[in-house]
């Protein structure tokens, strides 16, 4: 995808597959240069089979981290991501399950700490969205499901992991541009992303005395499987075109921000959100 290109029309069934996207998302840039910024660290990343999560775990592996790759059920994408981590010379544990299941969260922490002893970096990235034209079209079940995945799962995994995150650790939460400007067809999704911003700010203050930093990243329109699997082919063909840069972003363009927030370069940053959105200026 060139600098001024929006995707061609396409649609997939949920949850979507990165391997079926055209063009496939870029998860690492040829210009990226690793520097051992996470050497020896242990990172847990949710929603890591594809999209932003794939880019994050591959960058972390290239920076020297041991990675726990968490995903729901997109097994083919997860295997591809696992292969990319190993190509980068990284160690990886791959765990499939629902982050909104407290038992699964406990299992993740048990397996990761059993193998590597601690968790230095937790990236809460898993999310889902279900566009609806009108509020009346959002069922109570959909509202609850979106909140369960996007914010309840974040709370449950963070709670399970916290006893094993040492001083100097980092928690990074994926929120969204929709938390700040809303989206008329993503009302429940936008509400969860606003909750994530508040969760990030409050938790950062709560954990400052323990030496654990908490920050967020608010992506704008990013080319991931979530897009062709939740929007119509026509909407996909216009995706990202309304940004100042005139295109959607690539996962590879976000991942370095997650590296920055995970490593000691950001030692004086907590309770903040980085806006990577193609040039849209936001207050907050």
TrEMBL record:
Gene3D superfamilies: NAD(P)-binding Rossmann-like Domain (3.40.50.720). One of its GO terms (molecular function) is oxidoreductase activity, acting on CH-OH group of donors. Keywords: Oxidoreductase. Residues 1-26 are annotated as: Disordered. The keyword Oxidoreductase applies. PROSITE patterns: ADH_SHORT (PS00061). SUPFAM superfamilies: NAD(P)-binding Rossmann-fold domains. The keyword Ribosomal protein does not apply. Coiled coil: none annotated. SMART domains: PKS_KR. Transmembrane segments: none annotated. Residues 41-226 form the Ketoreductase domain. Residues 1-10 have a biased composition (Pro residues). It comes from the Bacteria. NCBIfam families: PRK06701.1. Belongs to the short-chain dehydrogenases/reductases (SDR) family. This is NAD(P)-dependent dehydrogenase, short-chain alcohol dehydrogenase family. It comes from Halopseudomonas bauzanensis.
